[in-house]
Design a protein that fits this description.
By secondary structure, this protein is an alpha+beta fold. It has 17 helices and 37 strands. α1 runs parallel beside α5 (215-227), α2 (132-142) crosses α7 and α10 (331-340) crosses α13. Residues 583-593 have a biased composition (Low complexity).
């Protein structure tokens, strides 16, 4: 591209080695070289952003650089586009580690005393997030160059040495994330902990696939220019080609891997493919400036880890003035929750009878809309106050009239157990510092009406809000919940602590109704899961005729279910569908958005869908249900085989790419199936049609197979009198135990806060045939071995599997600063995220 040198502009403050910016004369394409490593890149980018010679306010800034690659996710010669850039070396590092150190390197996060934890100290440049919509568009157009990508025999031979499937693939284009360090490191012993660090800082949503030395720096410089109004951070693209692997293949040392002659070849292959892919992206911007000029709309948070530019569009004062009693709160739901308070109820399981209101009727269904459940894991006290709707109404109404200092309500102090990752930015606009203290038997708290909660990392679309102050109160959380409900156009919400829940219904733009407080478990019961478990049970029953594709990554905090709508009281579909499993860990949907752009969810015309399914023929497309514009869905099997498939299929893999519906009735070949779950993979072909209840016209259809409810909120229930299994595991059950087709293990999100009696865990031996927790964890252990994975604890409790005794042990991290591994223990699993690697 020789025309790039038509204009050559010297800019003060650029790296001395590359002080000139080169530009074309006609279309405003410029090339700037940042120089190597974080400091050069950061100062150079900031100098460029502040220069009076350039105006970056409508400019698209794309890095085009090389990187090392993670063989688990990419291959040499490939071009990657990142959503997150994580600075990996802002950590402690030990040259030698203590005994039983749970990591393969001496790195561990600042503000902690060991590895695999969320940092206790956050400085602000740890994570930058760019527009996912722009990233996806750039990656899509870059794929046009794939057929021209360079490759060599030497590159292919080097890739063949690796055992990972991704590493052996020819050059391609991937959407995955990058990690910045000043140190040029190599080896699995460092790479794997670095990958876990990236995963933690992105709330489990990032996918580590490239490592480089500049991205955190130039993004910091550009973001500072953005803060000063000199650039637009939403127009940022991170493009890196893979020129080597971050670890050696089998039989090669890490030292030899760095200096191998093959890397000289893969280096040039990566550079050539970087240019080919980048040219497609630049041409797309230039040729479609009518689209790009106004910016590519994005729904994910964009910015730094401090959530600097996520401003709400709601005045919490209006919320406080419009809280009233939720009249007619569903009696069926109340009856259901009351059943959970029964101390004689056995274990975690609920039978189908527990899910029916008085008179045999199913509890009322919540209409499809986004729902948030905001909860806590532990409390300072064992028992919390019960706050009725009238007192809450009076308290918040007075907050609008008299000021917060004048509210004499009694409440209790709450405490969260997770890492300290929260800052409160502001309160009432007119009274930013108003605080009132309530007293109650040795405890007190500060009540604040929150304008917004400023989180270091969240994942609202994923179903997570890592908000963990040491002291908080009900009023603050209800204000936060109301703000998130408004932001996501949500109709229903709930706040849950260890034992109690308050349900919230949105009745207008800034009007919210609050239910009485419900207690799920009495203080003297030994059954002590957090109330969110009870509420998720309830939700799984009342909302099973809708599709829920939100993941539950950190179930102790904010849980997002379903999709929003532009009308908070009337769910509806919206055009387009964003891929499942593409969450926003830094603030959820943008203000004014309609949830996740949910496509069919909540707006599916069920009757139209059923009619189409009843007439399915081989290869026929199901297009435009209720007018939405999601991809066409085709049945992948001949309609004549559907009956047989229903009788023989097992639970297909439940992962983030699946799309499905839970319908009341499906009629196929004049046969009506009640409660049928239809799943499609990648939005293209129906891969399974699962029966949950036996058809009324076919009582013989009884194979004991059950679809379990899981923490992704896939609707499920029991079949043929078998016990309803709680959201501790996710798996399909056949006669042989908890399995899935092809041996794939599907276990996601064992809920934290589960306190199981010692005698229960002591009974978990191979003799306990068919015990779901044992079966699931044993399957998980095997999956970890197959994948060569070891995940260490990030929460308060740990599960240890002792290979020699085939027994499970729970370790309480509260009582020990460090853990000593059980003799013979080969694997240790984090309760909350057993297999996050399967969440792709």
């Amino acid at each position: 591209m020789p025309e790039i040198y038509n204009l050559n502009v010297t800019v003060k403050g650029l790296t001395p080695n590359y002080p000139v910016v080169h530009c074309t004369a006609a279309d405003g394409i410029c090339l700037m070289v940042t120089g190597l490593h974080v400091i050069n890149a950061g100062i150079t980018m900031l100098a460029m952003g502040l220069s009076e010679l350039f105006d970056l306010r409508k400019s698209y800034v794309m890095v085009a650089g090389i990187a090392g690659g993670n063989p688990e996710h990419t291959s040499t010669g490939s071009v990657t586009f990142a959503r997150y850039a994580v600075q990996g070396d802002m950590q402690f590092e030990l040259a030698s580690v203590p005994p039983n150190w749970p990591s393969t390197s001496g790195y561990f996060p600042l503000g902690t005393k060991g590895p695999n934890k969320y940092p206790g100290s956050i400085l602000g440049t740890e994570v930058y997030e760019v527009s996912e919509a722009l990233r996806h568009r750039a990656a899509t157009v870059a794929k046009r160059a794939k057929r021209k990508f360079n490759d060599t025999d030497v590159s292919r031979e080097w890739r063949a040495k690796y055992t990972q499937l991704a590493a052996r693939q020819p050059p391609g284009v991937q959407e995955c994330d990058t990690l910045t360090t000043n140190t040029y490191w190599n080896g699995a012993g460092i790479a794997e902990p670095m990958g876990r660090y990236l995963k933690a800082l992105t709330n489990g949503t990032g996918v580590y696939c490239s490592t480089e030395s500049e991205d955190s720096g130039w993004l910091a410089g550009l973001f500072r220019a953005f803060v000063l109004g000199r650039a637009d951070f939403t127009r940022t693209i991170i493009m890196r080609s893979i020129t080597n692997y971050d670890r050696a293949p089998p039989g090669v040392s890490d030292y030899d891997n760095i200096f191998s002659a093959q890397q000289d070849v893969t280096y040039y292959v990566g550079l050539q493919n970087l240019y080919l892919a980048g040219r497609e992206v630049v041409n797309d911007i230039v040729n479609n400036w009518h689209t790009f000029e106004k910016g590519i709309p994005t729904k994910n948070y964009v910015g730094d880890i401090f959530n600097t530019f996520d401003k709400p569009n709601i005045d919490i004062g209006l919320v406080a003035d419009n809280i009233d009693t939720w009249e007619g709160f569903d009696e069926g739901a109340i009856d259901y929750i009351d059943k959970l308070a029964d101390p004689t109820r056995n274990g975690h399981g609920l039978t189908i009878e527990d899910n029916e209101a008085e008179g045999g009727k199913q509890v009322p269904r919540v209409d499809a809309a986004q729902l948030y459940l905001l909860g806590q894991e532990d409390s300072l006290k064992g028992k919390h106050t019960q706050l009725v709707a009238e007192s809450l109404n009076r308290m918040l109404a007075q907050a609008g009239e008299l000021g917060l200092r004048d509210i004499p309500e009694q409440m209790s102090m709450l405490r969260f157990a997770d890492p300290k990752c929260i800052q409160v930015e502001g309160f009432r606009n007119d009274e930013p510092d108003m605080v009132v203290v309530h007293h109650q038997e040795g405890g007190q708290l500060s009540l604040r009406a929150v304008l917004k909660m400023k989180t270091w990392w969240t994942g609202c679309e994923l179903g997570a809000l890592n908000a963990n102050p040491n002291k908080t109160d009900l009023g603050r959380w209800l204000g936060q919940l109301a703000w998130y409900m408004n932001q996501g156009n949500c109709k229903y919400g709930a706040f849950s602590n260890h034992r109690e829940t308050i349900f919230v219904k949105r009745s207008g733009q800034t009007q919210f109704s609050v239910s009485p407080t419900y207690v799920a478990y009495p203080a003297d019961t030994n059954h002590r899961p957090a109330l969110r478990e009870a509420y998720l049970y309830w939700l799984s029953i009342i909302a099973t005729d809708h599709h829920f594709d939100e993941k539950l990554a950190r179930p102790d905090m904010l849980i997002a279910v379903g999709h929003g709508s532009s009308d908070p009281t009337t769910p509806q579909s919206s055009p387009g569908r964003r891929p499942v499993g593409k969450p926003s860990p830094l603030g959820g949907n943008r203000p004014g958005s309609s949830g996740r752009g949910g496509g069919a969810t909540g707006g599916v015309n069920e009757q139209a869908l059923l009619k189409r399914l009843a007439k399915m023929e081989l290869g026929e497309d199901i297009v435009g249900i209720n007018g939405h514009e999601s991809p066409p869905i085709s049945n992948g099997v001949d309609a004549s085989q559907l009956d047989a498939d229903l009788e023989t299929c097992k639970l297909v893999d439940i992962d983030g790419t699946c799309i499905g519906w839970f319908t009341k009735d499906v009629k196929i070949k004049k046969r009506v199936f009640k409660g049928t779950f239809i799943r499609a993979s990648n939005g293209e072909k129906i891969t399974s049609i699962m029966k949950v209840f036996p058809p009324e016209d076919d009582p013989s259809f009884d194979d004991g197979r059950t679809t379990l409810f899981d923490t992704e909120l896939w609707a499920s229930t029991r079949m043929n009198g078998s016990q309803y299994t709680p959201p501790l595991i996710t798996s399909g059950r056949s006669r042989g135990g908890y399995t899935t087709p092809g041996g794939d293990v599907v276990i996601k999100g064992i809920c934290p806060g589960i306190r199981v009696q010692d005698d229960v865990w002591d009974s978990l031996t191979p003799a306990t045939e068919g015990h779901p927790i044992l079966d699931a964890l044993k399957a998980a252990i095997q999956a970890f071995r197959d994948q060569n994975l070891v995940l260490w604890d990030l929460t308060r409790e740990d599960v240890l599997w002792d290979e020699s005794t085939q027994k499970l042990t729970i370790v309480d991290l509260e009582s020990a600063d460090s853990l000593t591994r059980v003799p013979g223990a080969t694997d240790r699993f984090e309760i909350r995220e057993l297999i996050p690697a399967f969440w792709k």
